[in-house]
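Folding follows sequence. Below is one example:
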Amino acid sequence: MDKKKILIVEDEHKIARFLELELKYEGYEVEIANNGRDGLEKGKEPDVDLIILDLMLPGLSGIEVCRRLRQTSEVPVIMLTAKDDISDKVTGLDIGADDYMTKPFAVEELLARIRVLLKRKNINKEKEEANILEIGSLKLCKNNYKVEYDNENIELTKKEFELLEFMMINKNIVLTREKILDKVWGYDYFGDTNIIDVYIRYLRSKIDQKYNVNLIETVRGVGYIIRG
């Protein structure tokens, strides 16, 4: 399993060092920034999995760092504050922090909150990945019924989209007309299976022929397959 990387943005060196040792002992990779501007730059790195962000920082405040990060990133942020001031906490949460802790705090509680946020991040990532199907340059997003080839949008009808989605989910598997009919049109469809051939032609005209590729293949006497 890959190590999770945690960025500590803290200007008090003793606290930063203490947190670094505790997190490394728990198996995390750790990076430290001692001011807001460095924290903002390091926080933008794509390999950072979570940020522990102090509220009071030289250069840029923790609030401002979090606000700017949220313009481009959804990385989990735990804010640390030395003041038990509800307005600071509300402001931090309003601009995008995921959690906060007031100094002094028990490191066991911080570790528990880190685990919760990382678990939530993994679940969200899995959900996001599950909603995007890709075969080469062809990408289908289930959430918004969007299909692209080389980042160019392809307009599909609802049934064309559902047929393509079913084939992409089952890429490299030969699908019979009967199976496609059952899964895409439904068991209560009483029409001719030739409807499958018609919609395959629609997809080929919009994808294979337009982009000069051969993704959808006919398996004679059986059905169709999409290669990936």
The chain has a mean pLDDT of 91.
